[in-house]
Specification:
Order of helices and strands: EEHEEHEEEEEEEEHEEHEHEEHEE
Number of domains: 3
Number of strands: 19
Oligomer: single chain
Strand order of the largest sheet: 11-10-13-8-9-12
Strand content: 25-35%
Structural class: alpha/beta
Radius of gyration: 21 Å
CATH topology of the largest domain: Rossmann fold
CATH superfamily of the largest domain: Nucleotide-binding domain of ferredoxin-NADP reductase (FNR) module
Number of helices: 6
Length: about 350
């Protein structure tokens, strides 16, 4: 038996290690050739101090207060030289991955299917012989390279971690290099390289209601989050607002409907900004965030969409005078993803 430990470095790179029962995280990392910061390894200096964002663990009491104070421990700070996981954990490492003599991983995948879901959205399905080893946190993204290797773009997983195949929702950008390859050249069996995972936009431990806001292909990481929520059997109230520009931009509504049947307290709404839409909800996402969805601030918000949408939601929340317990967002353009928490 072992536990999966996600190490999130400050440069956005995530690495996953396996930690045996009764094994300290620092020892497990070194065993897997990741040099986490350390000096004494005896709980004396505090050099290995990190923050455990989620998971259960035992720190014991074999360390000095100067290395880790009671206040720091209450903030989920840990000493990796003393930390013994008792479940899967996510640990934030305050150092760049390169300084720990590691980097993002790379995998070779093959194209299983490319499907044009709408004029603006392509779904890419990849097979990977090492699929079980392609670990990521729901919401994270990878860098995807075309077979020639001269075009690389960042895309969020829409599939569930630890499952195969790997899927992505990709915006079909007119004259875009990746879009041209996928819609005009790609065929089953083509080799594509993925590198990652990366990003600080991912599902945290669910302890309160969730409000998910998606714009266009920003639905992808939220689908991954819903897959994980379903897999974990979470029963917290979850509401998704999914906004698109036109009716024919709608994708994966059948999947969202299926989630309403799997998750007892999940529901979603689709809104279309085109005033001539056949959908009952027209306008922007901010036009349809009802007060009860904010739970008087006791809510975690996950938002993924183009920069204007993200900015509009932030301005709207400020105007409402509501500060959510946590607000995680990812801005994306056809070529760049920007994340913040």
């Amino acid at each position: 038996m072992s536990y999966t430990i996600a190490l999130n470095f400050e440069d956005g790179v995530s690495r996953f290690i396996q930690c045996n029962v009764n094994e300290k995280v620092l020892d497990a990392a070194y065993r897997q050739k990741i040099n986490l910061p350390m000096d004494c390894s005896d709980g004396v200096c505090g050099t290995c101090k990190c923050r455990c964002e989620s998971g259960q663990f035992d720190l014991g009491d074999d360390y000095l207060d100067d290395a880790l104070s009671d206040e720091e421990r209450e903030q989920q700070m840990v000493l990796t030289c003393q930390m013994v996981p008792e479940s899967d954990c996510v640990i934030n490492v305050p150092m760049a991955s390169s300084l720990c003599k590691t980097a993002q991983q790379r995998w070779t995948t093959t194209v299983a299917k490319v499907e044009q879901l709408s004029p603006t959205t392509v779904e890419l399905t990849l097979d990977c012989d090492e699929a079980a080893e392609v670990n990521f946190l729901s919401g994270q993204y990878i860098n995807l390279s075309v077979p020639q290797g001269d075009v690389t773009r960042a895309y969020s997983f829409s599939s569930c971690p630890g499952t195969a195949p790997l899927t992505f929702l990709i915006r079909n950008v007119p004259d875009g290099a990746m879009s041209h390859y996928l819609t005009q050249q790609a065929k089953p069996g083509d080799t594509m390289t993925i590198a990652g995972p990366q990003g600080s936009f991912y599902l945290r431990e669910v302890t309160r209601p969730l409000l998910l806001l998606a714009g266009g292909t920003g639905l992808a990481p939220l689908l991954s989050i819903l897959h994980s929520v379903n897999q974990q059997g979470i029963t917290t109230p979850i509401h998704l607002l999914y906004g698109v520009s036109r009716d024919d931009d709608r994708v994966k509504c059948d999947v969202l409907t299926a989630f309403t049947e799997k998750l007892a307290q999940f529901d979603y709404q689709l809104c279309v900004s085109d005033p001539h839409s056949s959908e009952p909800l027209k306008g922007h996402v901010t036009d349809h965030i009802r007060p009860e969805l904010l739970h008087n601030g006791d809510v975690d918000i996950y938002l993924c969409g183009p920069p204007p949408m993200v900015d509009a939601v932030m301005i709207w929340l400020n105007a409402q005078g509501v500060t959510p317990a946590h607000f995680y967002y990812e801005k994306f353009t056809p070529q760049v993803a920007q994340v913040s928490v």
